[in-house]
Amino acid sequence: MIERVFTEEYGRCVAVLTRVFGDIDIAEEAVQDAFTVAVQKWPETGIPPSPAGWLITTARNRAVDKLRREASRDDRHAQAALLHAEDEPVEEGAVRDERLRLIFTCCHPALAPAAQVALTLRLLGGLSTPEIARAFLVPEATMQQRIVRAKNKIRDARIPYRVPYEADLPSRLRAALAVVYLVFNEGYTASSGDQLVREDLCAEAVRLGRLLVELMPDEPEAVGLLALMLLISSRRPARTAPDGSVVVLGEQDRTLWDRDLIVEGQGLVRRCLRRSQPGPYQVQAAINAVHSDARVAQDTDWAQIRTLYDHLLTLTPTPVVALNRAVAVAEVDGPAVALSLVDKLDLLRYQVFHAVRADLLRRLGRTAEARAAYDQAIGLTENTAERDLLARRRDSL
Amino acid sequence: MTQYMLGIYHPDGPVPERLAEIMAELDVVNTEMRNAGAWVFAGGLAATSSATVVKSDGKDLMVTDGPFTEGKEHLGGFTVIQAADLDEAMMWAGKYARVLAPVSIEVRPFVG
Question: What is the predicted ipTM?
């Protein structure tokens, strides 16, 4: 229960306290401190009516006490933070969402793109450094260093904590969109744990996506990203069987798909098409809209999906996009053609690469190689539900 | 307010032909900085060929001709400004960059 409050409220608490103290490290430490107190107290007192309010007040008071002690020892950093806190009201839920400011600070162009995403996941999503490292396929020490370096730069170079000026917004938005989508992906296939989907992270990403559309309604890529996330989310009820195991797209009971999300997502895709300024998120949303159109898997218009992937690959020529395109190619031109494309990709540390290869090898009747590829995919997967799915497929060979 | 150094990094090679024009445009930006209360201090540096490096191994001094590092770019001058935050400092750096294109401007905060 406290764990759920942590994932749901961590970002909001850090955002409010960053504004209060003007310092991310103090904010993070204070929020973690408040959660430690909550873990001790809540089992006896019960969860307070407003957990976020309680956490923010507790975090602020404890941080102020600690800073006072440090300030009395002539710690100038603590003195500055205290001074900052005196001028800032504590109320949360102000007119503008606090998290939006924090996302723009985390996505500042003066930070390296990889650091932007890492920082947002850490500060707004409350993810641990190992979780973020796995989401990025990099060693944990590298990620730790990346986060520390980014936080130091925010402090030393005074990267501001606010929504950017209008002139800067378009470029700042692109970075923020990339970050939101990564948060969504981490939520949709949680990199670790027993649950396939971390609904809190998905909900967080969708919420941030909606906020960005609200802030910049004329930015088609923001609309495209929101549409993409809604269309993917619409399939969530069909994606997990009652026993918690994964159901792949082709085998899902499509009557379970969330029609409201599909209607909203497809409406947004049409809105994008009318603007005719395609970008990567809009094309991915369109691909998902094609899937949503098929009432049964056999009706899927794979030729259209492959054409959309061709377009996507010209917009974002990455190995992961090429891998996804190969899946569509397998449906149109057969698994042999697809496998020859997949084998050219340098994605050995990416578990989906091995899973796709395994599936193509299975369809080609190359059973021993398929089994080896499933084993490699399983070795790289820390999500129990996904691992079980891969093991079932391997064992059914 | 934080002080930032805007370091102006020139590509090595001959001085651009429209130097006088560029200097006039730069003057406009500098005046704007002064009027906004952002300008603190500035200095232009002579060519790297005039540089000398002095270094000690703990006992003896070693003196060598030339700049400290040989690269494709060199520090040609700098301006110290004060700004509320990095966005404001980047706004001034952007004005320099547009006037001096394709020169790079390094925005770097002072300690404290």
Answer: 0.86
